[in-house]
Amino acid sequence: MHDTDIDIFAWANNLFLYKDKLQFEIFLLSKTNVLYRTKYADTLGRQTHPLLIDSILEYIITGAGAGLVVRGFEEAESEENVLQRTKVDNVEKLVEAMTWLGEQEREMEAFSEEDHDLKRIRGMIVRITSPDPELKPFYIIKSISSSNILKGVGAWLISGNKFDAIENAAALRIPADSQLMIVGDDLYVFNQSKLERLFGYNAKKNAIADKKVKQIEASFQLSFADEMTLQAMIKESKTLVNKLQKLDPGAIKQEDLLNHAEEMGIEMMIDDAGAIIIMNNADLSKFVNLLNDDYLESNLTGQRYEIKSKKPLKVNEE
């Protein structure tokens, strides 16, 4: 993706002219980040607009006259009259999911409740196409909660004046709120928690983690296997991203860290140049734990512990 920045207000106004002629293709996103193609009956057509696009267009178009501003998600807070935006490429799990539509659509399976199970689905990606060739396809993304799925024993369907069982099928309630939208290279975030839930991306935490990674790389000699990098490995671990938030990479030197590791019986490999070898996620976790002073020995029992959470004691000066 290399589109120039899009004026989202002009885009919304142009799209509104074709609102009743938009074509929708719905794909289901599994918990393993695999996309499945689906079909929907014509009778659902009248529900697609209010559930998928109407609230977003209304928010942007009316917001233009009310002072709505667009800010980078990494800097903006979720506040009134601010539309948060980031680049799709910043969200690794989203890029992985969108690869199915860009490169693997022919390989995509059609979703079947019997074969795939709706309970294993965590979201939906809707590709929306306008008859105007100047308006490229864009995408609406929504999270699907298991609480909105009805299936199996105890799930009843009422039709007319009688109940019936939902057999060999499942019912899904589509959330009506605005959540995420992709236009060109940009991801517009209407619901920050849904972005983190679907793709594990918290821009603020990731921005802090990026700074800490640069500080670590400047202070420590590290050697990685194959083509791995510290930045890439950290991004793949939500636990390590969280741990880096309050970590001070300059508080300890490499020699002291290695000496502490030896004292605690934590095995760290060193290459001929003196760099700490990181072969896998386990090695990286040990390194970050040492950096965060997470290994302690009890003066009382002599037992050694990995501390999951630390709360500094308040010293009574009296």
Report what the structure shows.
Helix 1 (8-16) packs across helix 2. The chain has 2 domains: 8-201, no CATH class; 205-306, no CATH class. It has 10 helices and 16 strands. 33% of the residues lie in helices and 22% in strands. The chain has 318 residues and is an alpha+beta fold. 19% of the residues are buried. It has an 8-stranded mixed sheet with strand order 2-1-5-6-11-12-4-3, sandwiched between helices. A two-stranded antiparallel ribbon has the order 7-10. A hairpin with a 6-residue loop joins strand 15 and strand 16 (304-306). It is elongated.
What layout of secondary structure does this protein have?
Blueprint: H1 8-16, E1 23-30, E2 35-37, H2 45-65, E3 69-72, E4 82-87, H3 92-102, H4 113-116, E5 121-129, E6 138-143, E7 149-151, E8 156-159, E9 162-165, E10 170-172, E11 180-183, E12 186-189, H5 192-199, H6 203-219, E13 222-224, H7 230-235, H8 238-243, H9 254-264, E14 276-278, H10 281-291, E15 295-297, E16 304-306
Parallel strand pairs: 3-4, 13-14
Antiparallel strand pairs: 1-2, 1-5, 4-12, 5-6, 6-11, 7-10, 8-9, 11-12, 15-16
Helix pairs in contact: 1-2
If strands are numbered along the chain, what order do they take across the biggest sheet?
Answer: 2-1-5-6-11-12-4-3
Number of helices: 10
> Would you list the SSEs in sequence order as H and E?
HEEHEEHHEEEEEEEEHHEHHHEHEE
Q: What class do helices, strands and sheet pairing give?
A: alpha+beta
The biggest sheet, with number of strands, parallel, antiparallel or mixed sense and barrel status, is: 8 strands, mixed
Indicate how many domains the architecture comprises: 2
Rg of Cα set: 25 Å
Task: Give the distance, in angstroms, between the N- and C-terminal Cα atoms.
Answer: 63 Å
Considering DSSP H and I runs of 4 or more, what fraction of the residues is helical?
25-40%
Overall morphology: elongated
Runs with pLDDT <50, length 5+?
none
Strand content: 15-25%
Please tally the β strands and state the result: 16
Mean pLDDT: 88
